[in-house]
Automatic annotation (TrEMBL):
Annotated family: Belongs to the FAH family.
Protein's name in the database: Fumarylacetoacetate (FAA) hydrolase family protein
Molecular function terms, GO-annotated: hydrolase activity
Keywords: Hydrolase, Metal-binding
Pfam families in the record: FAA_hydrolase (PF01557)
Domain Fumarylacetoacetase-like C-terminal: 223-364
Top-level taxon: Bacteria
Organism: Bradyrhizobium yuanmingense
């Protein structure tokens, strides 16, 4: 059973920043947009029916600060009621801090994860083959491409060298080529939040967490804040074929975002986000512990470049979007037999943390074991209309 406290949620500076989230309110059988403040949790849905609407304002942090809202309770009690096992359905609980935005993700944005994708492709989804292939790929292209700018003349020269050696890969194309890999992670409103179960396809036998920074972007392409994310990944499915990307990435409860959205203000800026160090801890019931990290400062493409490649004249998002920025974390620590690498087991507790954004905590289950997703866009619109909020 997952337990959750305020200590497992808030950033190191507590509520000094502009923190916004979503809470399920049983009395209205629907979600509320909330401001998380030092003296409690405030429902601001009357002013901002959705997180998307708040992000569309000229200055979301200023707009939220100017909205008093209605106090609905203590953060401690709402957080404690969030994990599904011990939840009282008559009391409020936390949701993922995202609603109408499209859920997008960028892949292969760090050199080390790029190498692991090449290895997955060559291993054809078989973890037993990965170690030998990892040594060969590293011999061919090295293990530090962090200073190589994607799309540059130097990158294009490396591309040709690799083609000549029959070592080129589709993952190298998006890793060092001019065009970033940006895909739709999951359907709108399907994300799970902190304290909830995160899902793995039941047929997957080689998978891993992906600790990432998630940017919140308005319909105008303005980055307004950030949260933590787990872009749950099935290495065996994607390794078998890149055409299985949707099955590898999009399953029930496979998109985790939280714990809260921190809007940009004087306490947290885009430059702060660029310097984030994101930590990962996986603790299993078998005693296995895996630690990792991802440093946004080592990303190969600047966040503004990734956003610009996502939205513009060729693609619009009227309700805004969120964008997973990718990860440099690549799990190679053996869990069971030597050379088999890492894969999840049932009831793993995954904690993704950053000092400025708090902690995103999920228990791993198969997607068919997780709470089913039933509250979609139609249900949200109907609920808000019944509450006379739209």
């Amino acid at each position: 059973m997952t337990t959750l406290t305020v200590k497992d949620l808030l950033p190191e500076d507590g509520t000094k920043g502009t923190l916004v989230g979503r809470v399920w309110l049983p009395q209205v059988n629907g979600p509320a947009v909330v401001a998380v403040r030092g003296d409690g949790v405030y429902d601001v849905t009357a002013k901002f029916p959705t997180i998307s609407a708040l992000c569309e304002t000229d200055d979301p942090a200023k707009a939220l600060a100017a909205t008093k809202g209605e106090r609905i309770g203590d953060l401690e009690a709402i957080v404690a009621n969030t994990p599904p096992d011990g939840r009282d359905p008559q009391k409020p609980w936390l949701l993922a801090p995202v609603d109408l935005q499209t859920l997008k993700a960028a892949g292969v944005t760090f050199a080390i994860s790029m190498l692991e994708r090449v290895i997955e492709e060559r291993a054809k989804g078989n973890p037993a083959s990965a170690e030998a292939i990892r040594k060969e790929v590293t011999r061919l292209i090295g293990d530090d491409l962090s200073k190589l700018k994607p799309g540059s003349d130097q990158a294009m020269h490396l591309k040709q060298v690799l083609i000549d050696q029959n070592a080129w890969s589709q993952y190298l194309e998006v890793g060092i080529g001019p065009d970033a890999e940006v895909f739709t992670k999951a359907p709108t409103l399907s994300s799970v939040g902190t304290g909830m179960d995160a899902g793995l396809h039941p047929k997957s036998t080689w998978n891993n967490p992906e600790p990432e920074l998630v940017l919140f972007v308005s319909s105008r392409g303005k980055i307004v804040g950030g949260a933590l994310g787990n872009d749950v990944n099935l290495r065996d499915f994607e390794g078998r074929s890149a055409l299985l990307l949707s099955k590898a990435k999009d399953n029930n409860a496979s998109c985790s975002i939280g714990p809260l959205l921190r809007l940009f203000d004087d306490t947290f800026t885009l430059d702060d986000a660029r310097r984030l160090d994101i930590s990962l801890n996986v603790t299993g019931t078998d005693g296995f512990v895996l630690d990792g990290h991802s440093s946004i400062s080592k990303i190969s493409r600047d966040p503004t470049d990734l956003v610009a490649q996502t939205i513009g004249k060729v693609h619009q998002y009227p309700d805004g979007f969120v964008l997973f920025l990718g990860t440099m974390f690549a799990p190679v620590k053996d869990r069971d037999a030597p050379g088999q690498g890492f894969t999840h087991k049932r009831d793993d507790i995954v904690t993704i943390a950053a000092p400025q954004l708090g902690k995103l905590v999920n228990r791993m289950r198969t997607s068919d074991e997780c709470e089913p997703w039933t509250f979609g866009i139609g249900a949200l619109m109907k609920n808000l209309a019944q509450r006379k909020l739209i």
